[in-house]
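Record filed here:
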Amino acid sequence: MNTNVTEAGPFEKLLTLQVPEADLEAAKSSAARRLSHDLKIKGFRPGKAPRRIVEATVGPERLRSEAIDDLLPSLVADALRGADLNPAVPPQVENMKDIDDGLEVEVKIATWPELDHVPAYEALEVEVSQPEPTEEELERQLTRLRDQFADLEPAERPAVDGDFVSINLSATRDGAPVEEAAANDPDADRLLAEARAIADRCVDPGIAGRYLARVEARHGHAERAVVDELVEELSDRELAVLRYLPSKLSQREIAGELYVSLNTVKTHSKAIYRKLAVDGRHAAVQSARDLGLL
């Protein structure tokens, strides 16, 4: 493996790695063996499907992506030791591109500052503020959190500020009703009932059933949907990304922590949402906790 280190700015280095195609092929075979344990492929026991079958199932792009994800952490760590670099923060993959005989990866390294001399600091003073929140501010934040995680329940009373309300809308034009502009809560109930009747007739409604359960919960027709099983097992890489979702890290920052590209994190996040039958990061965290994955 060829490596090159160049200056990228104050206290920054750009580490360029060239990964031979032979190393990528070996990593693909390893990634295929790992993925085969999680896939349900007709005619093969878990972990026994050959690489070509796994690649045909998941697609060549995903297999290549998984192989690169497996390779990069150790390659970057070896390159850092070889170049005697001590990163101040986790390295960040800046770019990846195919070359004639493999892959070229650019990794940005933030290094610790090196001082020619110690500046005078004895007279410097730093004032650290310690704000004390008022009872009103604490209550406002607690209320926000309660509202964010609360379940909706029907209330047998007039609506008040802060309630979620279902309303019926109707419109007329020259005294005649405009059906296209009407929105009636009974229609929502009827459509939900029809969808539930169809889902109940399915042996395995899968993702559609899980989405329906969540919509029913929002309309007060069911308890909050608790995921009790996965549509499909999460891969090791998806589990690694999942563990960062409860944090406040952006997808780019998660990519830096895992030594992978931003596109890889986006791909794994989409797969996580699909397998947990959710439509966003917060819902994925909630469902993962229901399953004991977090």
